[in-house]
Amino acid sequence: MSQLTCGFIGLGLIGGSIAKALKASVTDIRIIAFDVNQEALLLAHEEGIADIIAEKIDENFSHCDYLFLCAPVQKNDQNLEQVKEILAPGCILTDVGSVKNTIHETVEHAGLEHCFIGGHPMAGSERVGYVNSKASLLENAYYILTPTSSVPAEKVEHFRRLVAGMGAIPLILEPDKHDYVTAAISHLPHVVAASLVNLIEDNDSEDGIMRMVAAGGFKDITRIASSSSVMWQQICLTNRENISTLLSRYIQALTDFKAAIDGQDADTLYQLFSSARIYRDSFANVSSGPIKRSFSINVDIADRAGALAHIVTLLADRELSIKNIAISHNRESEDGVLRVEFYQESSMTEGIRLLEEAGYTVHVRN
User: Which of 258, 293, 248 is nearest to 139 (CA)?
Assistant: First the structure.
C-alpha cells in the first residue's frame, strides 16, 4: 500500500486530534499542515505529527489524498478559492465544522462538489488549541459524514474506513438532517446552558450567594457554557433556522412546566419528570456525542486531616492521571463530597476498584 498523504489547513484542537489519530492508526502516512499559529505548527513538527509545515496554502498541498479544512467556518469558506487552485485530481476535500449546509453551498459555488465529503467529529473540549489536542478525543465519538451526490461511492467508503480506523464511529447523513440533529442535541443545549448561567448572574444577591453555593447538578448542566463564545456565536448564526425552531419548542416546553407548577398540577408534573427520566436513562453510556461524557466519580470521605491526601496518593501510586479534583460543599444532588474526574474511562474504572478495595463508597456519575 502506498503512503497516504493528508493535509491540514488549520491545526487546532480538532485538526490536531485528527492528525494525531491518523498518525497512530495509519502505518505509512505523511501529514502536511498550515496554521496561522506558528507555535502550534512548530510543536506539531517537534512531536512528529506534522511532517511538513507550510507557510501558506500552496503547492505543498497539491499531492494530498485527503485535505482537511479545520479552520473556523468563515475562514474555511475563504480558503476554498485558494484550495481550488492546488487541489490534486482524486483528492478528497473534507471539513470538521458543526454546521454542514453552509459549507456544502460554498463548495458547490466553488465547483468542488465532485470531491467533497463534509465531516463533523462530534467531539470536543472546553480547552482549545493544538496544545490540548489528543488522538483519544475521537475514540467512540460519532464522526458524521455528509458526502455530496457527486462523490464516487468507493471514495466515501474509503473515507469511512479511515474514520473508523481512528477509533471514531462513522455515520453518514444528509446535510439538512445533520444540521437539524446537531441543533437539537448540541447547539440548543449550549444556548440553554448560557441562558441559565446568565439567569443566575442576573438574579444573584450582592454577596453572590448563588454563585458560592452553585454545585452538583447546576455545575454539570452548565459546564458547556465555558466553551468558546466566538465559536458558538458563529454556530448560532450559521444554523439559525434550526436552532430558532427548536428553541421555540423548548420555550413551549418550559411554558408547560410553568403552567403545571402554577396550577399545582401534581399529575402533569410527575409525568413530565418521569418521561424525562425514562428517556434519559435509555441513552447509551458511552463517550460519544458532541457534549463529551465526563469520566467522574463521587467519593464519600470523612472530614478529617489526611483524608484527601490518602485518596490522591492511592490513585497516584497506580499512575492514574487525574484531570480534576474538587470538594463539594453542597450535597444537593450529590452522592459524595469529593469529586474526581479522570481523562479516560479505563482510569476511572481502575480508580473505582482501588477506592472500593480501600473501603471507600464510590458513586459513578452518569
Answer: 293
Residue 20 one-letter amino acid: K
Q: How many Cβ atoms sit within 10 Å of the Cβ of residue 326?
A: 13
Model confidence at 293, in pLDDT bands (50, 70, 90)? Answer: low
In whole angstroms, give the CA distance from residue 32 to residue 162. Answer: 17
Closest CA relative to residue 121, chosen from 91, 158, 164, 150: 164
Q: Which residues contact 354 (CB under 8 A, 6 or more apart)?
A: 314, 315, 318, 320
User: What are the beta bridge partners of residue 362?
Assistant: 299
Give per-residue pLDDT as tens, 19-52: 999 999 999 999 999 999 999 999 999 999 999 9
Task: Report the largest interatomic distance among the alpha carbons of the chain, rounded to a whole angstrom.
Answer: 70
Q: How many other C-beta atoms can be found within 10 angstroms of the C-beta atom of residue 198?
A: 11
Global pTM reads 0.76
Q: 162-214: per-residue pLDDT in tens? A: 999 999 999 999 999 999 999 998 899 999 999 999 999 999 888 888 888 77
Contacts of 209 (CB under 8 A, 6+ apart): none
Which residues share a beta bridge with 295?
Answer: 342
Are 292 and 227 in contact, with CB atoms under 8 Å apart?
no
